[in-house]
Structure formats: C-alpha cells, structure tokens
Amino acid sequence: MKEVIIYQAPSKALKTKKWLKKTGTVLLLISFLGFAFTFGPLLKSEISWRLKKESKKIHFGDLLKLKPSKEPAAPDPYFSLVIPKINAQAKILANIDASNPKEYLSALRKGVAHAKGTVFPGMPGSIFLFAHSTDAPWNITRYNAVFYLLRELEPGDEIIIFYLGKRFNYKVVEKKVVEPHYTDFFSQKEEELLVLQTCWPPGTTKKALLIFAKLRR
Predict the structure, then answer these.
(1) Would residue 69 count as lying in a domain?
(2) How many structural domains compose the chain?
(3) In terms of CB atoms within 10 Å, which end of the chain has fewer, N or C?
C-alpha cells in the first residue's frame, strides 16, 4: 500500500504568528538602534572616563617608563576650549544671546556658547561659557555631550582656553549647583573669572551646575 502525503497549507493563525515574530524582531532592532543613537555619546563619555581613571592607578616603578604627555592642541585657535581631565574639547562660538533659544540652540549644535555681553580671555570680568540647553535625554546627545562630565571637575583641575592664537590656563576654584536664574557672578568686574555652566541633573532644566576657574599666574 502506497503512503500518500497530502500538503496542508499553513493555517491563518500560523501565518499571523510568524508575522508577529518578524515584526517583534524588527521593533526590537529599532529600539536598540534608537537607544544607541540617544545614549551612545553619553555611554562613550562614561566608559572613557572610567578607563582613564583606572589607567592612572599605576605603580611607582611604572612612572619611569611613562613618556611625557603631549600638550593639548587647540580645536580652533580663534576660540576653543580643552578640559584635559574629562577629555573635553570644543570650538567656542562667541557672542551668543543666551536669551534667544533659536540662536543658542543653533550654536550648541556646533560647540560651546560664549554668552553675549560677557568678557573674553585676558580681560577683567566674567567669561561665561555654556552648553546647557537640554530638557530631555535625547537632547543631551545633541547639545550637552561636551559638558556631560563637568561634574567630575574639582578645585585645582585645569581648563585651557585658546583665544586669538593665545593660550590661557585656568584653575578650577569652585563648583556649585544653583537655581537656573543665578547670575550673581556677572556683577564682579575686579578679576578675570571663567564660568562654565551646564544643566543639572543632565537632561533637565531644574538646576544649573557651575564651574568657576581663575587664570593661573
């Protein structure tokens, strides 16, 4: 007796199950790519920072083998910033109106903003630089990655500003979290004071993190 094999078309339920499985895989991939795009720069900053901290834990004998570190190069000799401790460097866009969202949002896509009306390196008064226009996690990657690790700075750390071909070295003297409208430092005119601002906590506009630094003599 011959065995007869009858082909049975896949049921509608089976087709639906396969479609849902494929759709789920695609959605999972899209979610992963979205997460990587949104938080990738921040994760990179965090990992680089942690690795850098670990690399500093060396034995005294290893110091003899270390080569002298290279002097940081200017991202832009006209106006730019380098913070060696957190490996931050960016072009600074001058005379940006901090009260005009359209103007400063455009500037912060290209680098760090220098507030219009504040002084420049080499002048008495406050030099105000900000990279703080973030109100959601996805905007951190667009506007705030340069200053994301600003919280790691402590008194004594170095900040370098390049302006009109000259290098200015500053030393951090204070770090504080304040209300967004805090502007007391603008009134001082006696000494050169560098002020860096970013949002605190990152991704919100609840508070502002300020770093104060003075010119090294």
Answers:
(1) no
(2) 2
(3) N
Is there a domain that residue 102 lies in? yes
Domain that includes residue 37, residue range? 13-57
Q: How far is CA 116 from CA 97, 100, 157, in A?
A: 5, 11, 26
Tell me the per-residue pLDDT of 90-149, one tens digit each, with 9 for 90 and over: 999 999 998 998 998 889 888 999 999 999 999 999 999 998 655 555 565 556 678 888
Give the highest mean pLDDT range of 79-83, 87-91, 108-112.
Answer: 79-83
Taking 80 as the threshold, does the pLDDT of residue 155 lie above it? yes
Q: 156: closest CA among 144, 168, 140, 173?
A: 173
Return the bridge partners of 168, or none: 161
Residue environment code for 53-74, b if the CB has 16+ CB neighbours within 10 A, otherwise e: eeeeeeeeeeeeeeeeeeeeeb
